[in-house]
Amino acid sequence: MAGALPWVGDDVEAARTLTEVAGLASEAGVRLADAAGAVGWDGTSIPGYAPGRLDLAVIEGAVPPLEEAAGMLRRASELAGSLDTEGKLAPIGEAITTVKDLVGDRSRQVARAAALARLLPGLLGADGPRTYAIVMMTLSDARGSGGYPGSYGVLRIEDGRFELEQLAPTGQLGRVRPVEASDEVTRRYARFGGLTHFISSTYSPDWPTAAQLWMRMWEASGREPLDGVIGSDSVWMSYVLEAIGPVRTAVWPEAIAADNVSQILDADTMRTLDHEGSDAWQAAIATALWQAMVTRPVAAEPFGDAVSRATAERHLQVYSADPGEEALLETLGASGRLDMPENPLMVSWSGFVGSRTGYFAEKAVDYRATVREDGTAEVTITLTLTNTAPTEPESLLLGQEADNFDVGEYAAAASVYLPAEARGIRSKVDGGRSLVELLEREFGRRVVLTVLVAAAGQETTADISFRIPVDPEAFELGIVPQPELRPALISVTAVLAGGHDILSSSPDATVRGGTLMYRGTPTTPITIWATTRG
Predict the structure, then answer these.
(1) b/e for 327-347, b at 16 or more Cβ within 10 A?
(2) Measured between alpha carbons, how far is 472 from 493 in angstroms, rounded to an integer?
(3) 130-331 — its CATH code?
(4) Per residue, what are the HEC states of 104-154?
(5) Phi then psi for 227, rounded to 5 degrees?
(6) CA 395 to centroid of chain Cα atoms
(7) CB 447 within 8 A of CB 415
(8) Residue extents of the structural domains in the chain
(9) DSSP bridge pairs for 301
C-alpha cells in the first residue's frame, strides 16, 4: 500500500533494493568463510606459508569461493550504485550512502584477494621453475623508476619454494650491445646508456619499460632467461622490517631496522672512498634483508600492509614476462606501470652527479594555472631544489675534489611532463638557461628536460611555462609522484575562469572563491579537480 503512494514509492523500491544488496553481501560472507575454511586460515598467519615455502595447493583451493564472493559483491555494489539519495526520506538516504561506501569498499577488497589468489600459483612456480632478477635501487641517486640500481640478485622459485642467491653490485654486470626498444624509449634514454648499461636501466618512470630493458640486457649478456624483474628499495625494506623485526648481518655493526635502513643503505654505506667496499656492504645488507623476508615466519596483516603500501607507492614493483600475470599485477597495482593523466603534474628526477648527494636533496613543485574565458589556461610550474648537504668530508656520498662537481654539490635532471596540447613552452633556471634543455615526447605527452644544479647549502629554481586548452567551467590535474626517499612538496593554485565561484571540488583541495588550492606530499597518484557555476 505504501508503495502505491507517489511520494513514498521510491523509498519502498530503494528499501527493497537495499534488502537485495544485503542478501548478496550475506551470501558473499558465507563464500568468504568457505574460502577461509578451504585454506585453514586462522585469521593471523599467511595461509599455507612456512619459512621458505608457500603451499600453492592451499592458495589454489581458495580461488573458487573467493571468485564467487567477488562476483556477488560486485553485483551488490552495482545495485547499490544504481540508487540515488535525492528525494528520499532521511533514513533511506543515509542507508544508501552507507551501503554504497561499505559494499563498494568490500567489493574492491575481495576482488583484489581473488586476483591475488589467481596470480600467486603461476608466479611462484606451480607450472615449473621461475627465475626472477631482484633489483635494489638506491634512492639517494634518483631515477625515474625510483633509484640507481645498485645491487641485483637472482630469486628462484619452484612449487612455492624460494631460493635466493647472494646479491652483488650491479656495476659488475658491465655493458652489452644496444638492445631493442621502442623509438620513444630509444630517443629518451639511449644517450644515457639506457639500452647498454644495467646501471642505466631505471631512467624510465614506467617499471615495465625498465624491467624489459633489464631482461633484454640480461639475455644479451648470455645469462639464463628471466621470468620477471622485482624492483625494490630501502623504503620497501623499512615497511617489511616493521612486519618481521630487525635484521643483523656480520658486515654491519648495528641491527638494521625500520627506522634506520634507509639511512644505512642510502647514505652510511657510502661515507667512504672505498667504492668496492661500499658496494659489498650494500649487497650484503640487501641479501640479509631479502633472506629474512623469504625465510622468517610472518603475520598476515602487518606483512600484507607492508606489501600494499609499498606497491601503491611504487617502492615495490613486480614485472612478469607472462602477459596474463602482468595483467593481474596491474589489477593489483603492483606492476609499477605508469598511468599518465591527460593533464599531468609529474616530474621525474634523475641524479646528474657521480656522488650520492641526492640523499640531502629536498624538492618542491609549485603549479599555478589561470583559466581564461576563452578556454585556455596559462600555466607555470616552478621546481625548487634545495641542497642541505655538508661540504666535507670527501666520500662516495658527497663526492671528491677530483670530480666535475664540488664536494657536496648536487645536480639533477628534471623531466617535466606536460599535456600533449601544451603550446608556447618556455623554461629558465634561476633566470638563466639550463645546462641541458630538451623538448621531447613520452607516453603521448610533451616533456621538458632541464638540469638544476645546487651547491651545498644552496637552492635552485626552474620555471616551465606553457598554455593549454581547458574547459572554462572545470579543471582537473593528475598528480603522479615519483618513488622517493623524501616525497616532494606539491603546491597547486588554479584560478578558474573569470573568478567564478567553485561549485564542487576534490576532497584533498581547499577552495577560496574561484581559486582551487592544494598543498601536500603525496606518495600515491591523486587527482585535484573543481567545477564552477557562471
Answers:
(1) ebbebbebbbbbebbebbbbb
(2) 15
(3) 3.40.630
(4) HHHHHHHHHHHHHHHHHHHHCCCCCCEEEEEEEEEEEEEECCEEEEEEEEE
(5) -95, -10
(6) 31
(7) yes
(8) 2-115, 130-331, 344-532
(9) none
> Cα 132 to chain center, whole Å?
20
Q: How far is CA 182 from the centre of its chain?
A: 23
Looking at this protein, which amino acid is placed at residue 519? R
**Cβ within 8 Å of residue 201, ≥6 positions away:** 135, 149, 194, 210, 213, 214, 217
**Domain 344-532 CATH (choose: 1.10.8, 2.60.40, 3.40.720, 1.10.1060):** 2.60.40
Q: How many residues does the chain have?
A: 534
H or E element that contains 168: strand 168-169
> Residue 506 burial by CB count (10 A; 0-12/13-18/19+): exposed, middle or buried?
middle
Q: Is the pTM of this model over 0.85?
A: yes
Per-residue pLDDT of the chain (534 residues; tens, 9 = 90+): 344 444 445 667 777 877 877 888 888 788 778 777 777 776 666 777 888 888 888 888 888 888 888 888 888 888 877 777 666 667 777 777 777 778 788 888 888 888 888 899 999 999 999 999 999 999 999 999 999 999 999 999 999 999 999 999 999 999 999 999 999 999 999 999 999 999 999 999 999 999 999 999 999 999 999 999 999 999 999 999 999 999 999 999 999 999 999 999 999 999 999 999 999 999 999 999 999 998 888 888 899 899 999 999 999 999 999 999 999 999 999 999 999 999 999 999 999 999 999 999 999 999 999 999 888 999 999 999 999 999 999 999 999 988 889 999 999 999 999 999 999 999 888 866 666 677 899 999 999 999 999 999 999 999 999 999 998 888 999 999 999 999 999 999 999 987 678 889 999 999 998 899 999 999 999 999 999 864
How do beta strands 515-520 and 489-495 pair?
A: antiparallel
> How far apart, in Å, do the first and last CA atoms of the chain sit?
45
Q: Which residues of 62-77 are buried (b: 16+ CB within 10 A; e: fewer)?
A: bbebbbbbbbbbbbbb
| CB neighbour list of residue 92: distance below 8 Å, 6 or more residues apart | 11, 14, 15, 18, 85
Tell me if residue 242 falls in helix, strand or coil. Answer: helix
Half-sphere exposure of 214 (CA within 13 A, CB side): 35
Cα distances (angstroms) measured from residue 123 to each of 120, 152, 324, 327, 402: 5, 19, 10, 12, 47
Residue showing cell 574561484: 514
Write phi, then psi, for 145 (nearest 5 degrees): -80, 0
The answer to whether the beta carbons of residues 121 and 58 sit under 8 Å apart is: no
Q: Cell triple for residue 359?
A: 640523499
